[in-house]
Amino acid sequence: RLESPYQPAEALRWDARIDYRHGLLLKIRGALVPALELTERALERATRGGAMEEIPAMCALLAFLHRRSRRPEASREVARKGLRVCRTLPRRGERWREDIAQLLFGVAASRYAERRFVSAERLYRQAFRTITEAEAPHLAGVALNGIAVSRVEQGDLRGTREMLFRSLRAKERAGDLHQIAVAYSNLADVEL
After folding, report:
1. Mean pLDDT (whole number) for 25-38
2. Taking a C-beta distance cutoff of 8 angstroms, is the pair 8, 48 a contact?
């Protein structure tokens, strides 16, 4: 008797990957609500399908979408869920470090929104230590920018300008025009 090639768990994993990538596309287009719905569905399918290695990236995207929807508590909770999953994963390569950094950004941004600037700065620093600037300049730029704006909010302008220039250099290496614009805007705020 022949085994059936259909495996329900594998189908769930592929559906989760498709929903996740579609959610990324909608995020880039600015459609936050549909992106949020698709990413939540992707996370649910990945969990049911046992795709543990996919969950941290999905949680990071979901944390970002909650943050953009001005729901810092939800952002923090989903980021923490992703961090708990990361602890269980056996492979800890570059992708794992990038997922950790993105998840820490979710927690840091929620702390920043709650006006807990010291905690936010510490989380951004932890995210920066997790990655290497040469391999992930886009994430390094975001982390450095987060450190700088947290320090500005604490009233510590010393070193902030240099941190923002460093962030700008990393963002220029990454080539993300949106992040470059954010860096210039933050530099302008500090200069004024």
Report:
1. 93
2. no
Which residues, at least 6 apart from 71, have a Cβ–Cβ distance to it below 8 Å? none
Q: Where are the alpha helices (DSSP H) in the chain?
A: 8-29, 32-49, 55-68, 72-88, 94-113, 117-130, 137-153, 160-174, 177-191
Lowest mean pLDDT among 3-7, 36-40, 131-135, 141-145: 3-7
Residue type, 148: A
pLDDT of 162: 86
HSE-CB of 166 using CA atoms within 13 angstroms: 16
* pLDDT interval class at 171 (50, 70, 90): very high
Residue 176, classified by CB atoms within 10 Å of its CB into exposed (0-12), middle (13-18) or buried (19+), is middle
Which of 172, 26, 94, 135 minimizes the C-alpha distance to 145? 172
Residue type, 43: L
